[in-house]
Amino acid sequence: MPEGTTRIAALDIVREAGLLKDKAYIDGAWVGADDGGDFPVLDPATGREIGRVPNMGAAETRRAIDAAAAAWPAWRARTAKDRAAVLRRWYGLIMDNQEALAVLMTAEQGKPLGEARGEIAYGASFVEWFAEEGKRLYGEVVPAHGTDKRILTLREPIGVVAAITPWNFPSAMITRKVAPALAAGCPVVLKPAEDTPLSALALVELAERAGLPKGLINVVTTHEAKAVGGEMTANPIVRKLSFTGSTEVGKILMAQCAGTVKKVSLELGGNAPFIVFDDADLEAAVAGAIASKYRNAGQTCVCANRLYVQEGIYEAFTEKLKAKVEAMRVGPALEGDVQQGPLINKKGLDKVDGLVRDALDKGATAVLGGKVHALGGTFYEPTILTGVTAAMRMATEEIFGPVAPLYRFSTEAEAIALANATRFGLAAYFYTRDIGRVWRVAEGLEYGIVGINEGIISTESAPFGGVKESGIGREGSRHGIDDFVEIKYLCMGGI
Ligand SMILES: NC(=O)C1=CN([C@@H]2O[C@H](COP(=O)(O)OP(=O)(O)OC[C@H]3O[C@@H](n4cnc5c(N)ncnc54)[C@H](OP(=O)(O)O)[C@@H]3O)[C@@H](O)[C@H]2O)C=CC1
Ligand SMILES: O=C(O)CCCC(=O)O
């Protein structure tokens, strides 16, 4: 059997479902780039091309924004219940096609199939959630400042939304933005990541089948992110930018949005501390560390980035963690039962390996892994480093790879200070069985999300987001729709 045959066969389920697209989607039509240009989408496990999509620029983005603006009045005029019915149908279609969407995601992103199935369900859950939440966009009646007056507030859709999403969660990062926008009555122009546009296009195909009117979701595919992002941020019709990605790019986009004073939501990088106290349930802490650290090969913004282990259990924790991690199977996720796939691309691999080399050069020890995997390509060995210190680059930089750096600490106060010594503030985790400590540490951590005796914190019903340079705004939960509405105050006099 020629190399890669199994993988091509696996994509048959996607083709048969009509979900393997090769065009972008603007104003309800599947279209190519104006100049006919396109670019390949590669399977990170093999480097093989699995599809091609249009390489669009500012002109196509402008057209998508105009289409969104044209679609807005009719959509905002519909009842919330009516909009919810479309979203509910979209949710149903996503779940009906869970397997095909998961295979497609694994093919273009590389994560294990089980994780991809989980992400499809997780992504769909935002559509279901916001279908309901859109019905509850209540205004207020406020006690007035005069007997002849009445004060009311309305929560109105903000207008055309631009969304820019990353490759690490090719489906859920889209639905977490698009679903609340649509539910609130806003149209969207989406730029998915260059590495994973196919999942975005498949989702939109299903939205079309669900009966979403033209112009309400537009997908501009590109490998010239600056041109598309430049138009999205400069165009005055766009009233809101929602971005998930690196802090560096988030800052650029925020600055670009200043020119037209757009509302921004930024879900940026993290540097999550994972603290294990001497009194922790060790088995639970190891399981939580593995779930938090190695999910998606360590390529999540909420991944444990610094594992602080109290000195009394440092050796025991290291041993137990090592025993579990060395049993993890690494490989192409469509070809067998693996727990870790490849990293997204060569740039990602080089970043991870560079951080590991820096730590080893400065005195850390690789008790497991520590180099590119024997499979080659972008596979990296599941890695555990001990003796890591604040002088090493990985103490301050987001690793985004399957590398667990273990730091040693002695006191609770020291752990909190170390955990907070970062410009980031997205997720933090700690394990202890002392109820007093639970409260002290939870309140002491300067983070938007805190997992307490828990390594997986994501759910559609909780507010996801960071403080400091990890971002602005919250996604998911009842708060996740707030960023897509403006509050209008009505003052009625002469009563
Ligand atoms: N918070 C998070 O969840 C994420 C954090 N990261 C962090 O960022 C590092 C680098 O990853 P990377 O993929 O390069 O992240 P980026 O921030 O570059 O990419 C995220 C999204 O932004 C787009 N983008 C990049 N530059 C611009 C621009 N100037 N204008 C408009 N859009 C732009 C990308 O497009 P394109 O794909 O075409 O480049 C992609 O759609 C990772 O190692 C990780 O540390 C990365 C992804 C997600
Ligand atoms: O890494 C990210 O970009 C978001 C984390 C995914 C999640 O758990 O919701």
UniProtKB/TrEMBL annotation:
GO molecular function, one term: succinate-semialdehyde dehydrogenase (NAD+) activity
Biological process, per Gene Ontology: gamma-aminobutyric acid catabolic process
Enzyme class: oxidoreductase
Keywords linked to the UniProt accession: Oxidoreductase
Keyword Oxidoreductase: yes
UniProt GO cellular component terms: cytosol
Protein name: Succinate semialdehyde dehydrogenase
Origin organism lineage: Bacteria, Pseudomonadati, Pseudomonadota, Alphaproteobacteria, Rhodospirillales
